[in-house]
Amino acid sequence: MKRWTVLAATLLATLPVASQANWFSNSSALTLAHQALLEDDLGAMFDALITSWQQEPLDANYRQHVNDLLETSLQVDCGKSISSRSYPEWIRTVKVTQSSLERPGRVSYSLDLDIESDVTITDAQIIDWPENAISKETKQNLILDSESGAYRFNKNFILNQRLKPGLYRLNLTTESEQKWSDWLIIYDELRDHEVRWSSKETWKVVKNELLNTHCPIPIQQVKLLDYVDGEYETVYDKSYEGNYSENIKSLQTSADRYVLQVSISHFRYQGLIRYVDQQILSKTVDFADE
């Protein structure tokens, strides 16, 4: 028995009884996606899901079912083989980061697009298919890395809420009017780990479920930001992989008021596109001299 059989049965059980009755008697795109998953053909599964999003009813049961199907597919290689599409020769890397910033009494959302390329990128859009831009409030930046010789393009999309599961289109335009597009399926995954405040200056990492061993270990980052001359400057920055911190160690800054940020990031892939889900806790703290 293939390893997907039990998983497929579990996913099937999430469908309404009426849908289960004729599940394998039709040839819908979602059925083809299941068949491709059972055959370990993740590329065909992903292509079928794209077609499914375009053609089939998008009710709550459907969205949850596709969500679970995508999560199941990560048990092979964290999504690296889910798409065989290649970058054009002028793109080196693409990373999409969806973030939630949790401050006392407020949560804000954003999406960052980071691209490393050999040419100047002048514009990038992420479209909620078929035609809705995910945000009108954006900021973008382009720098030339003197060491690698690559251009580093960043575009920040300010969101009113976390992007809903669905089909999105990534569109890029260069200075010489070259264009490139690719599909991106956003889905809601249960975070393996989450970070929570324990006290004013301490926190803990909560383990919701076992880690997906096919994906990179979630990265924790701890930062202190100081507000100087109208701008925030990072005065403390530590990262942890696995052996997570619960407080600031070896603080060597003056007594002052700072912004403390603790984040944890989960890494997944959709082919060559790296997808990051980032949870950030942020609060103002006062540190005194010891």
Report on the architecture of this protein.
It contains 5 helices and 14 strands. It has 290 residues and is an alpha+beta fold. The protein has 3 domains: 4-77, no CATH class; 91-186, Immunoglobulin-like, CATH 2.60.40.10; 193-287, no CATH class. The strands form 3 sheets. Strands 5-6-2-1-14-13-11-12 form an 8-stranded mixed beta sheet, with no helix packed on it. Keywords: Signal. InterPro entries: DUF2861. Residues 1-21 form the signal peptide. It comes from Vibrio ulleungensis.
SSE order and pairing:
Layout: H1 4-13, H2 17-21, H3 29-38, H4 42-55, H5 60-77, E1 91-103, E2 106-117, E3 121-128, E4 132-133, E5 138-144, E6 151-159, E7 166-174, E8 179-186, E9 193-197, E10 203-207, E11 219-228, E12 231-241, E13 256-270, E14 273-287
Parallel strand pairs: 1-14
Antiparallel strand pairs: 1-2, 2-6, 3-4, 3-7, 5-6, 7-8, 9-10, 11-12, 11-13, 13-14
Keywords: Signal
Organism: Vibrio ulleungensis
InterPro entries: DUF2861 (IPR021290)
